[in-house]
Amino acid sequence: MTQPNDVQHQVGELENRIHKFIHLHDTLRAQCQELLSENRRLQLELDEERAKSRRVEEGYRNLQDVEQQAARQRVAGIKRKIGDIIGEIDRNLTLIDVQQHK
Q1: Could you give the CA distance from residue 72 to residue 54 in angstroms, rounded to a whole number?
Q2: Which pLDDT score, from 0 to 100, does residue 57 have?
Q3: Rounded distance between C-alpha atoms, residue 59 and residue 51, angstroms
Q4: DSSP code for 71
Q5: What residue ranges in the chain does DSSP mark as E strands?
Q6: Handedness of CA 72, 78, 84, 90 (dihedral sign)
Q7: Which pLDDT score is estimated for 5?
C-alpha cells in the first residue's frame, strides 16, 4: 500500500497540474477573445476597403463615360465643321461655275 506522504505528494502534483491547466485555459480563452476582436476589426476594415474600392471603380466608370461622351461631342463637332466646310466649298464652286457661264 502507498504511504500517506506519497498520496499527499501525488494529490499535490495533481492539484498543481489542474491549476496549471486552469491557468492555460484562461490564457487561451483570453487569447481567443483577442483574436476574435482582431478578426472583427479586420473584417470591418476589409468591408470599408471593399466599399472604397467599389466607389473608386464606380468613379472610374463614370469618368470613362464622361470621356466617351466628350469624345463623341468632339467628333460630332468636327463632323459639323467638315460639313460646314464642304457646304462652303460647294457654294464657292457654284459661284465660280455661275461666273464662268456668264
Answers
A1: 27
A2: 98
A3: 12
A4: H
A5: none
A6: negative
A7: 84
Which residues have C-beta within 8 Å of that of residue 17, sequence separation ≥ 6?
none
Cα–Cα distance for residue pair 13/6, rounded to 1 Å:
10
pTM summary value: 0.58
Grid cell 463623341 — which residue? Answer: 72
Please give the Cα distance from 80 to 67 (Å, whole number): 20
Q: In the block, which residue shows the cell 501525488? A: 10
- Residue 100 confidence (pLDDT): 85
Residue 10 burial (10 A CB sphere; 0-12, 13-18, 19+): exposed
Q: Tell me how far apart the alpha carbons of residues 46 and 6 are, in angstroms, rounded to a whole number.
A: 58
DSSP, res 3: -
Burial 30-61, CB ≥16 within 10 A → b, else e: eeeeeeeeeeeeeeeeeeeeeeeeeeeeeeee
